[in-house]
Amino acid sequence: MTAGFIVAADPTTASGAADVVGDAHVGDVGGGLVHVGPARTVTTDYEPPAANRRRRRWWLLAAAVLVLVAVGGWVVGQQVQSADQAASQAAPPAPSWITVGVERRVLAQTVISRGDVRPQVSILVGVPSSIEGSPVVTAIGVAVGDAVTEGTRVMEVSGRPVFVLTGDVPVYRSLKPGMTGADVAQLQAALTRLGCDTTTDAAVYAGATKACVAKMYTDAGYEPVPTSATEAADLAAAGQAIVDAQAGVDSAQLALDNAAKGPSDAETLAASTALKAAKRGYNDAVASSDAAVKLADGNVTRAQAEFDRVNGDPTSTPAAVDAAQGDLDAAIAAAAEARRTRTSTVAAALDSVTLAQAAVDELAKDPDVSAEFTALGQALAARDRAQATFDALQNSTGAIIPQGEVVFAPSLPARVQQAVTTLGPIGADTQPGAVDGGQTAAAGAELATLAAGDLVVSMTLRAGDRGLVRVGMGVELLDEQSNTNYPATITSIADAQTTGNDGQAGFAMVITPDAPLPDDLSGINMRVTITAASTETPTLVVPVAAVSSAADGSTNVSILPAGAASDADPVIVPVIAGISADGFVSIEPAVAGGLAEGDRVVVGR
């Protein structure tokens, strides 16, 4: 039975006769005509409506019966098969090789991910550390979208300003006199650019820097913050200590100068006169002493003669002898006393001469100023200590920059991304914190966020893709909203894994566009396509499954020669494998001409 059929009712006769033109087979089923085959033309005549309806019912019935018969026959025909057919279907098919044609095309190994567009650096403007008590916004210097230049006062909190200067080092401390470091150097560079020269301080927060900081504040209408509340009194006391020490130095110097002058003429004359007087006294003492001794000796001689006379006179009474003897003894004693007196008197006179001579000699010598010199040295040391104390105090005092009253941006002008818009106390829900590597305020809440530098794209590189990607690779960024591509370059990849916002572990990566991105792209998410490797020019490629490795480390593919049967033995062709991507690998025949585009490589059986 043929698969297709046409059913037509003949409306010309009650018996159902019909004229059919062509090679059609015609049969009579239930008063209706069934035409099976490629009928080309059927001619019918007019029939009255009622009769036509009756014949139409018979026609539909005949069509339904014919359909059932045809479907039933087809089902039976599918179930009925010969023994050979059953055996053929039960046996496994003959084995054959599965092959794929060798292609020639560019093969690229790509990594596709998503990245967020953000400013290169975001700087947080927070509440300065100089604010005591609850911070209150008292003036707003910028609004969202404004460009901030160097020296701009962006905000005022509780009467204290916040300035923006150019610098790469974020503020991490209050800057005070006496400090050194990279942050001090960049402050000095900024002050110099603003017109106040600090080059003499050479990276030390010294006198010129203090003066320029004070000028920056006073020019903006603010009082500089001192190092302490007692700074002025401490400096005054240290200065007075220098004055007192200098007075001591002056006094000691005067004493030394006077001592170094030597004796006056009056002192020299007096000493000379005293020496002369002492010599005269000595001469007088010698002369008078000698006369007294001579007199005493004469008295002894006379007393001795008298004693001798009396003692020799027989008529002398014992009393007279004793009296003469007494006079002699007294004369002898007086003579001895005269000699002793002479010795002491002459010695005393000689001592007076010696002392007077020593005084004259002393006045003739250079003056001894050692005591005065020692006193002066002590006075000078006291003055130096007072000066050192003053200098140290002066170097450590002066105008300071409290942490947060200056923020540094790597490049200016910067764009204001966020900023408070109303004056008054800062809301409790406003929290401090750094954004994308920006600096954290010392205290209080976030007041504004500044975007510095060009826009970059940050993303998390999956751990499995780390070996494919390196710094310096080209990147294609796609803005899907405008369907615009932007070429870019990978500029940094973190050494350690972190967990991204999506909870996936990976390596933080920064991509820098080759040309600056439009500002309106900030904050959007872009598609990132990294071409990790490429053949650059069309090359032969085959499915990865077609390449096998031998024991010696070589790689091969198996091909079926042109015209060979599907179960023929394949030919092994050594190849050099290149990059792989999307299930394909680039290859190059080890022997020139060993493989060509269109060859059939075996991928399975």
Task: Summarize the structure in words.
- Among the domains are: 82 residues, no CATH class; 101 residues; 66 residues, conserved putative lor/sdh protein from methanococcus maripaludis s2 fold, CATH 2.40.420.
- Helices cover 36% and strands 28% of the residues.
- The protein is built from eight helices and 26 strands.
- The strands form five sheets. Strands 6, 7, 21, 22, 23, 24, 25 and 26 form an eight-stranded antiparallel beta sheet that branches. It has a six-stranded antiparallel barrel with strand order 8-16-19-18-17-20. It has a five-stranded mixed beta sheet with strand order 13-12-11-9-15.
Beta-strand level of the residues, as a percent range? 25-35%
Q: Major sheet, described briefly? A: 8 strands, antiparallel
**Level of helix content?**
25-40%
What oligomeric state do the depicted chains represent? single chain
> Helix segment count?
8
Flag low-confidence runs.
Answer: 1-53, 428-444
Q: N- to C-terminal separation?
A: 40 Å
The number of distinct β-strands equals 26
